[in-house]
Amino acid sequence: MLKRYGFHKASIIAGFIMLSFTVQASDLTQRQSQLEAIQQQISSQQSALKDTSSQHEKLIKLLKKDEQAIANAAKKVNNTKASLATTDKQLAALESRRVTLDKLKKIQQQTLSNQLASAYLAGNHDYTKMLLNQQSPATIERLLAYYQYLNKARIDSINKLQQTITELDSVEAEQKQKQIRLNQLVLEQQLQAKNLTQEQAQRQQTLTQLQRTLNSHGAKLEQLQIEEASLKRVVEQALKAMKDSPVMEGLSRQHKLNWPTQGRIRSGFGSQRSGEVKWKGVIVAAPEGQSVSAIAPGKVIYADWLRGFGMVMVVDHGKGYMSLYGHAQTLLKNAGDTVDKGETIALVGRSGGQTEPGLYFEVRHKGQAIDPALYCKR
């Protein structure tokens, strides 16, 4: 009965997973059709700069959809990995408990067997005959106390054995349920990984077409200026949001912090991007999917997609200090959430139209960008 119930439950969940995957596939197909339509328009209107600019904006919006879809898929994969790890630990703990209970059961069975053998060897005693044979009351009293002790010991052993058997059955039943859940998670992870791969392929197609529209140095510089303006607006919004944040300790140069993720600095603070546009943060080269941690306790005041920077999170640390994390594959916290120092808040990615994975990281004080190396350990 338990097996039939578990199989039926697993079938229902698998059905929901397949339905969700079908909906995602439909959205992906729609975005692929949009990309093909834009490509055709660009091909027929390549000579018209105005039209090309219009198609560029459409591609930016499509890139946003693609990268948001990747973020959703990556978050599901990350959550499923965490669930798999938790379930594995639970199964290991249950197996350890099962082994312990099985050993205890065998010991209790042996103890009870020895007690029954002792009772058999002692034989049956007719207490009336003992009285008629005029055995001393003290002897009779000692014998009665001894037999009562043996009887109580047997009853206690039987009760303990029954409790052990009941708990052992419960542990084995829970093991079966956890194994069913583990199998469901593995199936879910396979579907999510497939969906993530498809979304990444769609995003690459959009990005390739987008890069073709930026066919001049001037066009690239203009886009960087637009992205800078977008970031400035986000910082201004964050400054307003910081007024409502609880009192926090801020950041200190005296107590160096860990970098949000491990990797080499690919672009340093203040280095030139293009023209007069300079980096207001650093790019840390790191593998896609690597965890990104909050550098200090704080409150998330922004978590969304931002043009040129992709999936971005801004954390308020108090006293006018904030840290910004960009180009993430996915964000694991939402605006309004509080975070602890070292807590995983995002995963390294290449969102915002990046071709290489890495983390864009800023530290600001009262809106002004500061070299993160002043606060983080070298």
Automatic annotation (TrEMBL):
Keywords per UniProt: Coiled coil, Signal
Domain M23ase beta-sheet core positions: 278-372
Coiled coil: 35-97, 158-241
Keyword Kinase on entry: no
InterPro entries (alphabetical): Cell_wall_metabolism_enzyme, Dup_hybrid_motif, M23ase_b-sheet_dom
Pfam families per UniProt: Peptidase_M23
Gene3D superfamilies per record: 6.10.250.3150, Glucose Permease (Domain IIA) (2.70.70.10)
Signal peptide boundaries: 1-25
Protein name as catalogued: Non-catalytic member of peptidase subfamily M23B
